[in-house]
């Protein structure tokens, strides 16, 4: 994840607020969210900010930032995956069967690539690189696909047996390897940058997972969401468990994100809440079923970029954006 200074992010949010405020006068696609009472439940960690339901369509071949809209209107129908880098998002929409490139400042969307749709019990895993290259897990096709900024296929990661069911993909910033979570075997496969398999994470002693639902990189290693075990398992570079997070506090965990300080954000399908942990301590939660601010129909995917948390909600046909409070200095020191 790109590290953005507090001053830079503050200026970016201020500029975004002006642009989106002007757009909102003519179009309710981007909505500023009032503060709900539920915000206090996280101790102020998460605060609703914006709701995206689509945007004005632009040519997919238009370089970033996009040119003027064509006038056509695009609404999300069933967003199941989201990733973000600076002011741009990628949204996987199972309803339109399209992977959309979204400029949230200009309120525009552009088609990036066709999308085959999600699968039950899993959101869509997407990762965006510093050059806006995207890696997308496509379990129905048994493959992870890498796209360039214009939606052209760069490379495919596929197991020779063609039986893997990839539901999670993680790529370190240096792109030294590609980690693919396989729901069929509940294992994590390691590929080199050219798409050649290196084996399983952990080698002959892979971590014992009852299921594999989502993955994210964080300060302690690889964080793996195990839906059946109702926990997040933290693995070191060798693939060995170093911590378990969640305990009996998760119901049907579905989505996962981790910030630079080690706070773990879990979208829980059991009560439609986002639960925030540090180590195994539940710092708080926010949400509940509904369609208002900080309410969710189904949390499919979470993505963190700087101090913004993006939430793909398939039932409410939108992506909610929440601001994430900085970590108090004392807490930050304890996490080191």
Architecture overview:
This protein has helices spanning 6-26, 329-335; strands spanning 30-32, 46-52, 54-57, 73-75, 79-85, 88-93, 98-103, 108-114, 126-128, 134-138, 143-147, 153-157, 166-170, 178-182, 187-191, 197-200, 214-218, 221-226, 231-235, 241-245, 253-258, 263-268, 273-278, 281-287, 299-305, 308-313, 318-324. It is mostly beta strands. It has a single domain (6-62, 72-326), classed as Neuraminidase (6 Propeller). The strands form six sheets. Strands 4-3-8-7-6-5 form a six-stranded mixed β-sheet, with no helix packed on it. The chain starts with 5 loop residues before the first helix and ends with a helix. Residues 1-29, 35-40 and 332-336 have low confidence and may be disordered.
Structure keywords:
336 residues; mainly beta; Neuraminidase; 6-stranded mixed sheet; 5-stranded antiparallel sheet; 2 helices; 27 strands; 8% helix; 43% strand; globular; disordered N terminus; disordered C terminus
> What is the number of helical segments per DSSP (H or I, 4+ residues)?
2
**Helix content estimate:** under 10%
CATH superfamily, by name, is TolB, C-terminal domain
Largest sheet: 6 strands, mixed
**How large, in whole angstroms, is the Cα Rg?**
19 Å
Q: Taking strands numbered 1, 2, ... along the chain, how are they ordered across the largest sheet?
A: 4-3-8-7-6-5
- Would you count the extended β strands for me? 27
**Could you say what the CATH architecture is?**
6 Propeller
- CATH fold type: Neuraminidase
Count of the domains? 1
Global outline: globular
pLDDT < 50 stretches: 1-29, 35-40, 332-336
Q: SS-based structural class?
A: mainly beta
CATH class: Mainly Beta
Q: Average pLDDT across residues?
A: 85
Tell me the strand percentage band.
35-45%
Encode the helix/strand succession as letters: HEEEEEEEEEEEEEEEEEEEEEEEEEEEH
Give the end-to-end Cα distance, rounded to a whole number of Å: 18 Å
């Amino acid at each position: 994840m790109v590290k953005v200074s507090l001053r830079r992010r503050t200026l970016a949010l201020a500029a975004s607020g002006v642009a989106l405020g002007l757009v909102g006068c003519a179009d309710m696609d981007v909505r500023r969210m009032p503060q709900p009472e539920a915000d206090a439940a996280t101790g102020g960690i998460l605060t609703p900010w914006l709701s995206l339901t689509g945007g004005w369509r632009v040519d997919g071949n238009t370089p970033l930032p996009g040119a003027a809209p064509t006038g056509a209107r695009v609404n999300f129908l069933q967003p199941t995956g989201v990733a973000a880098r600076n002011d741009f998002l990628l949204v996987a929409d199972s309803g339109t069967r399209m992977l959309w490139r979204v400029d949230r400042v200009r309120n525009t969307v552009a088609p990036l690539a066709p999308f085959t749709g999600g699968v039950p019990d899993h959101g869509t895993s997407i990762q965006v690189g510093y050059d806006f290259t995207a890696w997308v897990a496509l379990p129905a096709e048994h493959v992870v696909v890498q796209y360039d900024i214009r939606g052209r296929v760069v490379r495919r990661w596929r197991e020779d047996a063609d039986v893997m069911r990839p539901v999670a993909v993680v790529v370190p910033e240096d792109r030294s390897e590609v980690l693919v979570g396989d729901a069929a075997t509940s294992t994590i496969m390691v590929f080199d940058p050219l798409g050649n398999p290196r084996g399983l994470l952990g080698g002959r002693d892979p971590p014992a997972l009852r299921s594999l639902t989502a993955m994210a990189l964080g300060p302690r290693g690889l964080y793996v969401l195990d839906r059946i075990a109702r926990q997040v398992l933290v693995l070191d570079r060798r693939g060995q468990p170093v911590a378990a997070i969640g305990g009996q506090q998760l119901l049907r965990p579905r989505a996962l994100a981790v910030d630079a300080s080690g706070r773990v954000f879990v979208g829980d399908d059991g009560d439609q809440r986002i639960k925030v942990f540090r180590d195994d301590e539940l710092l708080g939660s926010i949400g509940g079923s509904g369609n208002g601010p900080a309410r969710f129909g189904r949390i499919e995917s979470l993505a963190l970029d700087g101090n913004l948390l993006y939430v793909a909600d398939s039932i409410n046909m939108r992506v909610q954006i929440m601001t994430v409070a900085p970590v108090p200095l004392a807490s930050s020191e304890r996490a080191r």
